[in-house]
Design a protein that fits this description.
Elements: E1 3-7, E2 13-17, E3 36-39, E4 45-48, E5 51-54, E6 60-63, E7 68-71, H1 86-90
Bound molecules: FE2/S2 (inorganic) cluster.
């Protein structure tokens, strides 16, 4: 199993399996990242970092603190997972309210 790790404030290092990278950091002893996702009416998800996107090949895109990206919700973007504005051209309609799962 591939291991990964993270430096913590004291300078020591903790290791954990790569498969747990999506677990909030607070569960493994550090501060939880502040991630905000806003549902845009009939549009994308607007997500504010810090967080990372991991593609199926394992490549990571780091969205730094204070930076926001729009993630496609309509399925029509040619630049997934990012929104490219296609939702407006195809007349995407979606429920307005977020629901708890
Ligand atoms: S939500 Fe914008 S292209 Fe899909």
């Amino acid at each position: 199993m591939r291991e990964t790790g993270r430096e913590i404030a004291s300078g020591s290092r903790i290791s954990y399996p790569a498969s747990v990278r999506s677990i909030p950091y607070n569960l493994i002893g550090g501060p939880m990242a502040e991630v905000t996702v806003k549902v845009i009416p009939n549009g994308p998800y607007r997500a504010s970092g810090p967080f990372k996107i991991i593609d199926p090949q394992g490549s990571e895109i780091l969205i730094e603190e204070g930076r926001s990206v729009s993630l496609c919700r309509c399925g029509g973007s040619a630049n997934k997972p990012f929104c490219d504005g296609t939702h407006g051209r195809i007349g995407f309609q979606a429920d307005q309210a977020a629901r708890k799962s």
